[in-house]
Amino acid sequence: MADQADHTPPAGDNRPALALHVPEPKCRPGDTVDFSDIDVGEAGAQPRPDESAKPEDMKDLAYSLVRVLGEDDRAHGPWDPKLDPETLRTMLGHMALVRAFDERMFRGQRQGKTSFYMKCTGEEATSVAASMALASDDMVFPSYRQQGVLIARGYPLLEMINQIYSNKGDKLKGRQLPIMYSSREHSFFSISGNLATQTPQAVGWAMASAIKGDSRIAATWVGEGSTAEGDFHSACTFATVYNAPVILNVINNQWAISSFSGFAGAERTTFAARALGYGLAGLRVDGNDALACYAAQQWAANRARANQGPTLIEFFTYRAEGHSTSDDPSGYRSAQEREEWPLGDPVMRLKNHLIALGEWDEDRQAAMDKECAERVKATTKEAEKNGILGHGLHHPFHTMFEDVFEELPWHLKEQAEQATAERIAKFGTERPYE
Amino acid sequence: MNADSQTVPTAEAQTERRINMIEAINEALDIMLGRDDDVIVMGEDVGYFGGVFRCTAGLQEKHGKTRVFDTPISECGIIGVAVGMGAYGLRPVPEIQFADYIYPGLDQLISEAARLRYRSATEFIAPMTVRSPFGGGIFGGQTHSQSPESIFTHVSGLKTVIPATPYDAKGLLIAAIEDNDPVIFFEPKRIYNGPFSGFYDKPVEPWKKHPDSVVPEGYYRIPLGEARHVTRGEALTVLTYGTMVHVAQAVCEAKGVDAEILDLRTLVPLDIEAIEASVRKTGRCLIVHEATRTSGFGAELSALVTERCFYHLEAPVERVTGFDTPYPHSLEWAYFPGPVRIGEAIDGILAE
User: Fold this and answer.
1) Cβ(A58)–Cβ(A309) under 8 Å?
2) Is A231 in Cβ contact with B80 (below 8 Å)?
3) Nearest to B21 by CA among B246, B271, B298
4) What tens digit of pLDDT does each residue of A307-333 get?
5) Beta-carbon separation of A201 and B112 below 8 A
6) Is pTM beyond 0.90 here?
7) How far lies A182's CA from each of B21, B158, B210, B250, in Å?
């Protein structure tokens, strides 16, 4: 093994030399991709325990993969949520819209309309299908790749684009990096950008809901890479200690920028298995199977709502695109991975399922894709009337000083006055406050 | 903007009820738990046991286990869940057992609690009050003695409050809990049970001999951002807070110096009007804090006084602080900015 240290131990020491293991993914750019070691199991083969099951009685579900959609595009087994065709079409529509939105916004960044964007291509089911299994007023604490939750909850695309452009229509006043949305109205917590901080917050919200005898639960999403943060450990501990009505969703998309999941411990065990040490229910789910994503989230939501405890769900998926517009994945992984991914593409699989049911066809799909693209394009044009990043149509500059505190303290008042003086020196007295 | 000691209810105006700072903090929590169902008290050992310093004694029994409860030993988790509770609409009052333990919670405080109002454009806020005993003088060694206030005063969006008397502790804590911004509330543990003159070899004085141990039983609040005149004087201004208020006062009394001592009480937002008015009057300014010197809050005070009162100054602004070392266990009193260090600084300023 390359891990073996090649130096000799100090004289007089007859103990063997230790060796540090530094994980390395199986393939790098140019290598032949081989995913044969990933055991995806059979759709429908996994048992579905009762929502009140004890975590120790469902250990296998933390190591296998809950799957519903089979190679035959049919739903199989006890996890089939048995959704009606209309709901399935709605789900497919949300996922298609997310994909169209991502395409357009990515292009917008490349055209210089904003500074930054993050696609969720290949992971649409983990946010769209999962959030459809929650009540619309259940509180979600997302990470940065859950635009699917907002779209599934009907958040206006215009608001999303205004935020991405940091323009004068941006409800967050241009303060946040693009895609760090917030919508209290849609029970969608402000996205941080500091990783995993949302996980104990979700637990705290759930604790508060339980303290108040409320019926709403909380759900959070975190990447597999950032489960390494202490916050995630704190979240799991508090969740189990207080039996908080919360769902901890781990999106294992294999890559954290350029670091493969091995740097979060994936060489040794699954992320769902983290649950077992805490006494949480753990589910490992095919994240590219929209029906499995829905079913798992529904199971966990039922469990939480019945005071049966929190659930940690690992969605096993693949980040088909770069980490963000600032990333070039060709520098660290093979472009073939996306093609070879053994669990396919979530949009395709759901589409094929609907077609297999006789409830959909390629023409309708093509028409829907076109409609999504046109809708996004038209909304983009609408948003551009409010301005794009760096072209002056932002919120008035003095809003920079607002909302640091509830009331403006003297030192910020003074600094705001200084900023005003700077504006007057730069632009004259005509329009210093813009 | 500042309040005089004289304006607080005096022994004559009140039933003679004298309590220490622990009892004052306990009362403030009790009152707020009673007034507002959204107030939650949590932290390590604060529930059944009532806290290692007894500040939460009896509160769980009175207000119930879902209002006052123990937490895992995880400062990151304590502050993190408090952010989530605030987003729900609660008003959590987490206790961090020692200020020295607060660092695992810093990301949740600095990047989350302090920024939430701003980054969400007021959609979500974090109206929490983080209570934590701080400061040395109790032979606590380097992990039970630190004064990390300047770490927090440097953060946009946090308020930092430090009481120095039972009366202030109660009124400021109530105001902090009612505040809609996150507040760091540092309790100087050396003076929990009695004011401290800095002469560590003298017997400890109980609070009951101090006029500010007279504390009304009910609800009252002291607005954040207002300093308190401990003494009025002409010779020099002393800017200080926490334990050092009492040390500075004892030194000035012992030396017979006609000092104007300002207990800042709130570091952010700071009572700049009271500071300016006093320094312009006396022309001399001494800053005293127990925390380490470099980039300490004294540096900010010194800069503010120099920027705003320069033409009124008769002598350079001086700082008396702890040394830039970890808090040493056996050499605690060599580290502590005690009467000798303060006395020499006063002599120096008055000699100019």
Assistant:
1) no
2) yes
3) B246
4) 999 999 999 999 999 999 999 999 999
5) yes
6) yes
7) 41, 21, 50, 53
